[in-house]
Amino acid sequence: MRRPLIYLGVPVLVAVVLLLTGGVLGGHSRPAAAPVAAPTDRLADSIARAQDRLRTLPKDWRTWAALASAYVEEARVTANPTYYQKAQGAAQQSLTLHPDGNVDALVALGALANARHDFAGARDQARAALAVDGYSADAYGVLADAQTQLGDSAAATDAVQRMLDLRPGLAAYARASYDLELHGRTDDATALMRRALDAATDPHDIAFCRNQLGELAWQRGDVAGARREYTAGLAADATSVALRRGLAQVDAADGHLDAALAGYADVTGRAPTPGYLIEYADLLRLVGRPADAMTQLSLADAAVQLFTANGGVDGLATASLDLATGRAADAVTAARAEWARRQHVDVTDTLAWALHAAGKDAEALGYARRVAGTGARNASYAYHLGAIEAALGQRDAARADLTRALTTNPYFSPLEAPVARQLLTKVGS
Amino acid sequence: MKFSSTSSRARRGLAVLATATVLGGVVYGLGPAAANASSHREAPLVAADPAIDNTDLYAFVSPDRPDYVTFIANWQPFEEPNGGPNFYPFATDAAYNIYVDNDGDGKPDATFRYTFQTIDKRGNDTFLYNKGPVNSIDDPNLLVRQTYTLESSFNGQPFKTRIKDAPVAPSRVGPASMPDYGKLRDQASITLPGGWKSYAGQADDPFFLDLRVFDLLYGGNLSEVGQDTLAGYNVNTIALQVPFKDVALKGDAKRNPNIGIWTTTDRGRVRMSGQPDASDNARRDRVQVSRLGNPLVNEVVVPAGLKDAFNSLSPDKDAGIPAVVQRVTDPEVPRLIESIYKVPAPAAPRNDLVEIFLTGITTKAGGPIKADLNSQLNNADVDASKFRPSEMLRLNLSVPVSKNPNRLGLLAGDQQGFPNGRRLTDDVVDIELQALEGAALTGKLVDALAAGDKVDANDNAFSDKFPYIALPNTAAVNAKAGKTGAAPAPAPSTTPAAFSNKDSTASTVGYISAGVGAAVVVMLGTAFLFVWWRRRTMVPADDTLPL
């Protein structure tokens, strides 16, 4: 349901104002500028060139579409959602100028729909593009992203393979790597990202590869390896929010809590997404600052409501926030609704965890087992399954899954990992 | 406008939202774009991948070595020579291939495969290319260097390594860093057993044109041409010189002088299943990601919806795609020209264009051009039953080197020039523009196109010895004040051969009449607009946009 933000109420406005004043966000210390000129930012250059060109040749529909795609990329690398509307406008302009068979514009609109979490819409755009050009690797990329998020694992893998068959390279390797990761093939996923990194020359692309490699190292509990990747990535692109967040995560795991808090303050200042804000709140609770944690959760609430009020649907963020604020029943409602739309493993896991929080462990178990059935090697998923089994009195299964969680990544969450250890002791005795 | 990345931007964006909120719900209708969703994994879609982008192919009989053919293939356009940390390696996960088909079946009879390795000694301390002057190809001050392996395969035999660890000439990052680049070029120009010569490294982009002629397609005009749009930019070049006998059918270039050439870039295939397909042979285990033969091909021969398909096809498949053939026989560009300049488009089907792009100029394929110039069908030992029309650059090795090459090539009666192979000095765009002027079918010039793109020669002089291409530029293109365009043209001929009194010279393969030259010209002219548009500018989210 769309409704004007004005009706959202005073608490949200307060939160927004807090977000604006920056007072609660802490210092936004930025990495020191490199001593020499950084390599060219090809993405920014391509946007500037396209804009210049369109000023003199406003009927150039191909450049409009290229500009739209570049804006979607810019939104990704800067975590700045205002580029989405620019992308929308540019793609629509391209379609208006050239309505028939405009693969470039359809691909741009599909990528945009994915970025906005309209995964079904993205899938349809990708199919429309492929109907015109069945050899478009970019269209298969959009389709792969959409099917992955919708939870159609087989269709996603098929789209990734087609992309690989048409145009192997960073974009295809990245999607293949994630697909392998979701199937628990972490080593293969890592090998492919290494290959992508070897081929990458653009600083943003290098940053992306390093972030994925850091994430993969993190997932197997290799904190030092993850730190190496994040640090190397930030050397290529000091502005990357994702890498900064990764570094904050390993700082927390290494017990450098001040550094971790400063990192999250920087990250959430630049990209106030619900996910980052909730992680920041977790960390603040860990260090005994519950009031500050609540502030971050208020900001997360504001961010979710802003997104929802403007027509977006993100039940995963809503459910995660409900869980973080102890509203288990609301979390179940949100997670159920999201799961009806898409069955990505993250959604399934969140639904299981929400049901557990609401005391519905019998139902939760089915979803948590479904998560385990994907083969994904993720400590958090294993912990959730183990905790649900423990609540149901299935001690052997709980012991196995909690052990699996803690051997996969003993640092998986600053709040939940200690709980997992306690629980393991309890079921192990 | 370029947006700088600052930590305050997100807050500023929200400030706007908050203000709007306070002002009464103006936020409504902004769409979900106005706020971030929770993050999900997002990967680059249009990743910068210029290193595998074919731009141009040249093939010509070597002026200083008349029994040797030279292939020059370029990748990665628009390399800005502004030094510092920007340098332009060849991709190490790709293979760069030059193919020769001497029997016309659309399949390679000779394959030259270049693969590259990077030696990176920067460590974590710097991302600079060099830490001091680079005075030799193996100077330790050069922190990032590349080497290459050249392998070759003939007639389907296994690949043999011709050289390993050959040096790549570095990106030229300025006179202070590389005071004598000519020396580096010389050290990277190597001679191999069998008389082969090979070079891989940076060069001035030898192609010269004003890309703005292509703006016609989007409502622009020709009033602003005359600037070599590629002046000052560099490319990555692979140059290879081999004796005729290594590429001619049966090793006999006298009986079989005609060859077809194309280049590709490919990468290894990746399978999600992790299981190699047992039916796959080595060739199918590679994925072709880019292809280039004729400079005029991409939008002329290939329909928009098939451009990705075309880049993935091998030439022997071309004729099996009806849409490709139809595009050639009924091209779009002449209609566009008609709408703008009121020059009637020649009537379809354009079987003349089929000859240019798909068969070579020959009387043996049923085409309308009454001449035999450069089709493999004219090789004495060819098996005509295996001939497949296919898109490639065709060269007759027996046409002697012109003493005074004419930039307008075949159309000015210089049979050594494009579309008989392609020399560095051939003015391909003006050949096509002249074709429109020449309008042999109408006898009427198109005034607006009379001067072509007004760029008649490259900005930098070519060399008279291998690898012939000019040294890389060192001045930043975008810092140049008042770019003034090209050097003076070498005796430009503005009159198509069809309207001149000059006779074409006889060649060993037959007499090409002036009329044929003009016919060729018209065919090409129909095609001129799209070519580099696609190659040079249509790579999205990349700095190859022309402005």
Write a compact overview of the structure shown.
With 429 residues, chain A is mainly alpha-helical. Chain A contains 23 helices and no strands.
What does this structure look like?
The complex is a heterodimer of chains A (429) and B (547). Chain A has 429 residues and is mainly alpha-helical. Helix content of chain A is 76%, strand content 0%. Chain A is built from 23 helices and no strands. Chain A starts with 9 loop residues before the first helix and ends with a helix. Mean pLDDT of chain A is 89; it is low at 1-37. In chain B, helix 9 (428-438) packs across helix 10 (514-525). The relative contact order of chain B is 0.16. Chain B has one domain. With 547 residues, chain B is α+β, with helices and mostly antiparallel strands. Chain B has helices spanning 9-22, 181-188, 244-247, 298-301, 307-312, 322-329, 333-341, 351-359, 428-438, 514-525, 531-537, and strands at residues 54-61, 68-79, 94-101, 110-120, 144-154, 160-167, 190-191, 197-204, 234-243, 258-268, 286-292, 393-396. Chains A and B meet through helix 1, helix 2, helix 3, helix 4 and helix 5 of A and helix 1 and helix 5 of B.
Distance between the termini of chain A: 50 Å
Which range best describes the helical content of chain A: under 10%, 10-25%, 25-40%, 40-55%, 55-70% or over 70%?
over 70%
Instruction: Calculate the mean pLDDT score of chain A and round it.
Output: 89
Distance between the termini of chain B: 13 Å
The helix-and-strand class of chain B reads: alpha+beta
The ordered H/E elements of chain B are: HEEEEEEHEEEHEEHHHHHEHHH
